Amino acid sequence: MLPLPTFRVRLLAAGLTGLSWLPAAAQTAAPTTITVQVNKPGGAVSKNMYGLFFEDINFAADGGLYPELVKNKSFETDEHLVGWKALRGGAGLETYAVLTQQPISATNRHFVRLNARVAGPDAGMVNEGFRGMGVKQNAEYTFSLYARKGPGSVNSLTVTLESEKGQPLAQAQVSGLTSEWKKYSLPIKPSATDAKAHLKITLDGAGTVDVDVVSLFPKDTWNNRPNGLRPDLVQLLKDMQPGFLRFPGGCIVEGRTLAERYQWKKTIGDVASREPLINRWNMEFKHRSTPDYYQSFGLGFFEYFQLSEDIGAEPLPILNVGMACQFNSAELAPMSSTAGGPNAGNDPNTGDPTLDTFIQDAIDLIEFANGPASSPWGAKRVAMGHPAPFNLKMIGIGNEQWGPQYLERYEPFAKAVKAKYPNIQIVSSAGPSPDGELFDKASKRLGELNAEYVDEHYYAKPEWFREHADRYDKYSRKGPKIFAGEYAAQSVAIGSPDNKNSWDCALSEAAFMTGLERNADVVGMASYAPMLAHVDAWQWTPNMIWFDNLNSYGTTNYYVQKLYALNKGTTILPVQLPGNAKNGQDNLFVSAVADNGTGEVVVKLVNYSPEARTVKVNLAGAKKLGKTGKATVLASPDLQAQNTLEQPTNVAPKESEFKVSSAIFDYTLAPNSFTVLRVAGKK
């Protein structure tokens, strides 16, 4: 292609002196008038409108939000020594084996036995961490383990934190070993920062030592909690001011089989006693196989509720409805059982849990979250250090199930929950696709059942999001509320490892979200998915936030979500385009809300065009206008632009002021931009 100046010279030379060759957006045509009907407010915008979807995929929990640095600390995984490697050295380590004789507890049944034939400095084992261990210079970490001594002269252990290249960063000694299990704890302070350090434990002397529950945990956690979360990741979440936090997923709620499903009751209580489980994402994608991916449940349901409270979000736990993932085994729990006594809730023939068990789990969870100390499950919450209730208001029944198998289980499940807790709102599932026969049948039936929220998911190419910005314009105002529970534009194809968090994807999502906001009387909640991904250990892309062992950043998509959440307002304001043109025509997308708390009108505009575009904004009926407004602009001339660890704010919001001379003013939108305008003005 010829450069534009040369091209124009040739046109002039050919006598083509008109302007018809110029792109339409670059011509000096009158700006499009956008009428925001401040004097005709619509329905309310839910205070929970924009929130977060968490799933333990991409090392989002262990190795991510949950900052334990030791992988497989209790040797309880199926592969008991995953994450560990023997150091035999010149000392002749004779025994390196996982055993079960006289364990620490019934739920922590395995430990490792080390036996050195002769004394030496290199007999022991090393833990690799989660793609290494990210440690910071002079930061404090707590090392702890359980140990007991056997025959021989080993009275102590040497603990060494080493860099990726094997240089010592810190060293300490665990002394005073006895013949009984005992917990030892000591501080570790690295002399240098390293993103891929590892932990070495060696025997001081010849003989036998049993070791279990090995931990290296940073002191610097969110709110400085002993079992706290990684602060930079929590800060990114809190900065969004999310309305809700959906957890723990996602497909891990279902499991590949029912035996591998997420069971919340096994994720509370003493952290050392929580039994790990294979992560259902470990081998889902052959191109990103991760056989070492387990859930330790150090981040369990208590911690999820605590996180929700910390970031000001409503907790939204999702519970299994008696169905394993339909993309895997599609295993179903029997509908019900008449067995009583110790077999209540189990199939009398197979002993497998029936739907009754899953329903009881949901009812018990509500008691755990909200019940008094005098209740059995409320007492467990209090014992974990949270006397006040978590004020749970809603739960999800099933994650992404579909078909008659889901609907026949959902109905008795929802009925039982409502009978016990009538004020709890329930989120139901419309399946993994936003259209088609199964989607239509589910939506119809859930409407007949007076469902409160229907969870709809959409993963599609960027153009789908722009083309469907009017999706909810056509929805009935009398049906269930919509939870746009999972969405993300896919730059290549759904599930492709080549998908990128490009500005094209984020801008298209911003366009789609004008339709969510414009229809906030129908759409009550929305969340991008997935939320977190480790740059060295992901299974799915794109994702909202990426991180390594030391650093993190928000993607272009993160900033779109954040701008919507920070500017959600309180009331829908109708928007009219000239000639009642369709929103999105000529790639201009608009929505508006009033923020009754600040007295401002908030207008969101997406210019999906490579040219700047001037619009005329008419705040019809607005009074008490401010003389200036605030513009927040997210833009890039390059639709393929991305943020990275090296350039975390390559595409990030920029704020400026603009003059407001009257209720009608001009504003020029940058090319390929998402703009939020805030103007003081009441009806």
Account of the protein in words:
This protein is an alpha/beta fold. Among the domains are: 52-67 and 228-460, Glycosidases (TIM Barrel); 84-218, Jelly Rolls, CATH 2.60.120.260. It has ten helices and 34 strands. The strands form seven sheets. It has an eight-stranded parallel sheet. β20 (453-460), α8 and β21 (481-489) form a beta-alpha-beta unit. α4 (355-370) packs across α6 (403-420). Residues 1-28 and 338-343 have low confidence and may be disordered.
Quick synopsis:
This protein is of the alpha/beta class. 17% of the residues lie in helices and 29% in strands.
Topology:
Blueprint: H1 4-13, E1 32-37, E2 52-53, E3 84-87, E4 93-99, E5 111-116, E6 124-127, E7 133-135, E8 141-152, E9 156-162, E10 168-175, E11 182-188, E12 194-204, E13 207-218, H2 231-238, E14 244-247, E15 277-278, E16 294-295, H3 301-311, E17 314-319, H4 355-370, H5 376-383, E18 394-397, H6 403-420, E19 425-429, H7 437-448, E20 453-460, H8 462-467, E21 481-489, H9 503-518, E22 523-526, E23 532-534, E24 545-547, E25 552-554, H10 556-566, E26 571-572, E27 575-576, E28 588-595, E29 600-607, E30 613-620, E31 628-635, E32 654-659, E33 664-669, E34 673-680
